[in-house]
Amino acid sequence: MQIMVQGQGQIQVHPALPDGAVKLSRSRLIAPMMTRKSQHQDQALRDSPIKDVAQKNWRMQSVCVRRLWGSARVSRLLKVTNINRSVRQLQHKKVMEDNKPWALTSERGEGFVEDLTNIRKHFQILCYKDFLQNPQLHGPKIQAMLVWGKTPPTDPSTLRSLPSLKVVANGGVGIDHLDVPYINSLGVKVTNTPGVVSDATADMAMGLLLASARKIVQGHQISVDPNTTNHKPQSLMGVEVTGSTMGIIGMGHIGCRIAQRGKGFDMKILYHNRNRRSVEEEQAVGATFCEKMDDLLKESDFVVLAVNLSPETTGLISTRELNLMKPTATLVNISRGRVVDQDALVKALKSETILAAALDVTYPEPLPRDHPLLGLPNVLITPHVGTDTLSTSRKMVQRMVMEDDKPWALVSGVVEHGVYEDLTPIIKQHFQILCYKDFLQNPQLHGPKIQAVLVWNNIPPTDPSTLRSLPSLKVVANGGVGIDHLDVPYINSLGVKVTNTPGVVSDATADMAMGLLLASARKIVQGHQISVDPNTTNHKPQSLMGVEVTGSTMGIIGMGHIGCRIAQRGKGFDMKILYHNRNRRSVEEEQAVGATYCEKMDDLLKESDFVVLAVNLSPETTGLISTRELNLMKPTATLVNISRGRVVDQDALVKALQSETILAAALDVTYPEPLPRDHPLLGLLNVLITPHVGTDTLSTSRKIVQRMVENAVAVLKGQSIPNEVKPK
């Protein structure tokens, strides 16, 4: 059948469709032709491929279709199609909902904020009061508990009724209400939300401090009292905050944010913490560390408590500590009520031992209505609302439900003695990062989730005590080649792999070796010191006469990756290259860098103008260069060490340098590091020392981090490990 319709081209019967179905010449299905009275054709309508009709309604409204069927038939077709589509969408949504895990939560309004969108994206929600109606029915399906305001409770009875539970996600930092060891013993993870609450809590701390100092609550009460006649009573005389001294006890995330805000008031910031913050962190907020808390208490106008509750911090502030504070001082507590001995606080406030207290936390919460704290005029109390802002609440919920699937890695830190901040994105592609100092704040909470330790500059430590606190640990990934600081057999005995990063450090370390060699030979450090000394008059003193490097003989002890790279650089100076190694390199490798093998190390020592140490530290290489070896060297020779400090007997080296047995030494490594400030090596003019920075270039650091991560990921995924270290 062919029907010509003006403006639409040719319409023809489509052989693949039910009888009577028609198709435009563009191969667009319009609809099946059916009679008004035929149930069979009506069924064909519902069964035919009409998706394009529903998606392209405007085609259905075309003159062509209306001429064929009429407007009523078109409307009916659209209605049937839309109903079917809606049913399919609802069915799909129901299936997707049913696939989400169940989360047990506190009550809306009383617990979580009303907006539960973030939770519902990932979970089906069951409120605790509904759970209590039928624990036997609901318990087996619960996989997550989202704890907000300490509810739902995590007592043993509740936990035992949740056999499928995988995680207890706490809203907030403090987890003193959670028995973490017991929860972990059930195979259940515990998480909290550090970081996201810091700003809101710090704001609250400063708000309490200012409200107490300037008597804002009393001022408001007087202002709104209908009986008030004098709006500026003498009783509202406050305390100056700007320029005062604030002492912060507990310098974690929140403590640092409080210090930052105090700096904005030109306050002098003191702090006491279990671990001192880095110099950069102190300088950023202008904070001074007090090793003894007593010193902080004596000097501060405002003492702010920002510690976690633990056995060590329970009752931290009691009669003795309150007596150390100034009589004009205010105590601000935004941590936990039990950090303060409240009976002692009542006495101190009544006796005016201290001026005032501002508390967002008490014990219990709320206080009994007859508690003596409630009747004191010099106390300001809020009902534990430090984190209660809409923005922070949303962030907390998001962190609780979006706990990353990436495994956790324990790292030394970021910036000082740790990974450069610019390199952390490399780690974060595969891991969630926990810094060692934060781990120390609560090992019981953090330990079970750590699967990888990324060791940088020998930190985090891998002593038995630390390793035993990491029951889920799978890999210790070392940044660098040397693993003398790692007890590989012991670590392996725990079922933990050890990896390192050979190859990637070779060029930077070889550059450093040549840099030390050249700086020592040409007395570059002394030259700089003379050039910048304001008392210098002669810029070319005889004392700067150096040693010729080009054409000299360099002996390399340890011809691994790094040794070969050093030889390659020496070749560029037309140096004669000798080397001694446990295993001789191939002829091709020797020819590539023009190196000659010395089977006996003694021969190399006797002939070389520069002896470069590039060996790994082992029992065999400890003390490798001592009095005997130094006596074999030329009196015009220089010793360069870029391996490990203990490869050289430093006492013997001091004597050799003092007696001019050898000319000089250039060391990137010592033992210990750094040397004691009175060590004799530091006073010798013929020694050049750098602080173990052989691999410290941004490019190499990036490669090290990348390789550490690759090794760790391979272990966790059960893949072939690029650089596994095994006991010898």
UniProtKB/TrEMBL annotation:
Keywords per UniProt: Oxidoreductase
Pfam family, any one: 2-Hacid_dh
GO cellular component, one term: cytosol
Domain D-isomer specific 2-hydroxyacid dehydrogenase catalytic: 425-726
MF terms (GO), sorted A to Z: glyoxylate reductase (NADPH) activity; hydroxypyruvate reductase [NAD(P)H] activity; NAD binding
InterPro entries reported for this sequence: D-isomer_2-hydroxyacid_DH (IPR050223), D-isomer_2_OHA_DH_cat_dom (IPR006139), D-isomer_DH_CS1 (IPR029752), D-isomer_DH_NAD-bd (IPR006140), NAD(P)-bd_dom_sf (IPR036291)
All copies of domain D-isomer specific 2-hydroxyacid dehydrogenase NAD-binding, residue ranges: 206-386, 514-694
Similarity comment: Belongs to the D-isomer specific 2-hydroxyacid dehydrogenase family.
Name this polypeptide is given: 2-ketogluconate reductase
